[in-house]
Amino acid sequence: MMYSDKKLNLRQIQWVIWILLFGVNILTMLHFDTWGQSLGYSFVIITSYMMIIYGNASYLIPTFYQKGHITIYIFASLVLLFISAWYRTGATMWIYNYFYAIKPEVLTAATVIRTVASSLLIYFTSILFYICIHYFRLREQQEVLQRKQVESELSLLKSQVQPHFLFNTLNNIYFYAQRESPQTAALLEKLSSIMRYFVDEAPKEKIALLIEMQFIRNYIDLEKDRMRYPLKITIEEPQYMEAIQLSPMLIIPLVENVFKHGIDKRREDNFIFIRINSTEQYLEVTVQNRLITRESDGKKGTGLNNLQNRLQLLYGEKYSLVTTATTDYYTSVLSLPL
User: Fold this and answer.
1) Alpha helices in 161-229 (DSSP H)
2) Are 80 and 147 in contact (CB under 8 A)?
3) d(CA 286, CA 281)
4) Successive 10-residue mean pLDDT values, the chain, 338 residues
5) Domain boundaries, given as residue ranges, for the chain
6) For residues 37 and 102, what is the distance between their CA atoms, to the nearest angstrom?
7) Do residues 284 and 278 lie in contact, with contact meaning Cβ atoms separated by under 8 Å?
8) Fold for domain 161-337?
9) What is the rounded CA–CA span in Å between residue 158 and residue 256?
10) Fewer CB within 10 Å, N- or C-terminus of the chain?
């Protein structure tokens, strides 16, 4: 026997409830009426309930009540109740007069008003229905955000160190090893430090800025060894970085973006400038490089898109990431709450 692990969605749950109410209503009326009358009356009653519940929860509350138009909302609710009551009494009376009555009955205002009074409970139920629907939609949004967070973090971790970077670095190490250069040990140590960072530090919720900047320095040192011409590196850091805590791998996408899109290996004036400013409330990271002609379209790479998604999940609207391009320079400024 096969079992399905699919869950009913919100729309399907509502249909199940209405069908159950329809069935219960039919069984209740069978004690007094025929099958035909029970089916007809039950259909009219259930559809009148649906008119009140969906009319109020799906239209009146979002359109008038939530926007502060209380007087209009009350008036529109009364109109909805009278329309529903007129439909319910009129339709049931027509079924009775057309199919079953010996002496037809007349629809009166008193009958409609009594039906309005009896529909007040359904009206208040529609308010509870709106609250429940709103709650379930918030839950669905939270689940979607959680899935996006997992996917975003996974994509971020995968994208930060591309395979070509590791292969090129290993080739450089192999080259130095062949020549028995003293730089080999230093490169191996930096690569080992980066790998330890991925294993030990990256999974943590918070790490010291000192550790994050050491990881970035190692990354820059390995990248610059692949370049033909020297790279000018300027890093301005605050004091007491071990006391500043932040989520790991939030700065590296800005640095990686420089080596992906802001370096021209044919030029001798490439540079990367990093400035870290901190206050009691915010940490500001500025990364600047020379603007390369092919980057003039202003498109962001995958790393920056992943960074935006992760920042949104971590800080909501409390962060800012601004990128600007002038004639000569490309600048990224990231501001994070502490």
Assistant:
1) 163-178, 183-196, 209-224
2) no
3) 17
4) 55 86 87 84 91 90 88 92 91 85 79 86 88 83 77 61 62 67 74 80 89 93 86 90 90 91 85 92 93 58 81 88 90 92
5) 10-143, 161-337
6) 15
7) yes
8) Heat Shock Protein 90 (3.30.565)
9) 13
10) N
